[in-house]
């Protein structure tokens, strides 16, 4: 079964993260994740101290669409934050 990563970008959102995580665990698809702290985006032109990636979550699911349904209720997403869903490519 493929694995997917949800990358969350934007300011940390208030909300019921506990209930959201509980729902993800109950789905049987949640593989864990983490909040991320201060960082920097690095390019050849210079560093950008406004690193906007604030966390990630991993899932095991049949399809990207299945993971997309798990975004609903994510406090960051519900507050207007940006969420990216990507399939892991394992060689």
Keywords:
91 residues; alpha+beta; Alpha-Beta Plaits; four-stranded antiparallel sheet; two-stranded antiparallel sheet; 3 helices; 6 strands
Short characterization:
This protein has 91 residues and is of the alpha+beta class. 23% of the residues lie in helices and 36% in strands. Strands 2-5-1-6 form a four-stranded antiparallel β-sheet. It has a two-stranded antiparallel ribbon with strand order 3-4.
Helical stretch tally: 3
The largest pleated sheet is described as: 4 strands, antiparallel
Radius of gyration, whole Å: 14 Å
Structural class: alpha+beta
CATH names the topology as Alpha-Beta Plaits
**Count of the domains:** 1
pLDDT below 50 for ≥5 consecutive residues: which ranges? Answer: none
Query: Largest beta sheet: what is the strand line-up?
Result: 2-5-1-6
Any idea what the CATH architecture is?
A: 2-Layer Sandwich
- Please tally the β strands and state the result: 6
* Order of secondary-structure elements: EHEEEEHHE
Proportion of β residues?
35-45%
| Helical proportion, percent range | 10-25%
How would the blueprint of this fold be written?
Blueprint: E1 3-9, H1 17-27, E2 30-35, E3 41-43, E4 46-48, E5 53-60, H2 64-69, H3 75-78, E6 82-87
Antiparallel strand pairs: 1-5, 1-6, 2-5, 3-4
Structural summary, described in words:
The protein has about 90 residues and is an alpha+beta fold. It has a single domain, classed as Dimeric alpha+beta barrel (Alpha-Beta Plaits, 2-Layer Sandwich), CATH 3.30.70.1060. The chain is about 25% helix and about 35% strand. It is built from 3 helices and 6 strands, in the order βαββββααβ. The chain has helices at about 15-25, 65-70, 75-80; strands at about 5-10, 30-35, 40-45, 45-50, 55-60, 80-85. The strands form 2 sheets. Strands 2-5-1-6 form a 4-stranded antiparallel sheet. The protein has a two-stranded antiparallel ribbon with strand order 3-4. A hairpin with a 2-residue loop joins β3 and β4. The longest helix has 11 residues, at about 15-25. The radius of gyration is 14 Å and the shape is globular. The relative contact order is 0.38.
């Amino acid at each position: 079964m493929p694995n997917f990563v949800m990358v969350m970008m934007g300011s940390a959102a208030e909300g019921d993260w506990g209930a959201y995580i509980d729902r993800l665990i109950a789905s049987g698809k949640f593989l864990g994740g983490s909040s991320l702290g201060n960082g920097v985006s690095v390019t050849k032109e210079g560093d950008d101290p406004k690193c906007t990636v604030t966390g990630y979550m991993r899932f095991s699911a049949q399809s990207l669409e299945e993971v997309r349904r798990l975004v609903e209720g994510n406090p960051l997403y519900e507050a207007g934050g940006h969420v990216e869903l990507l399939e892991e490519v394992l060689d």
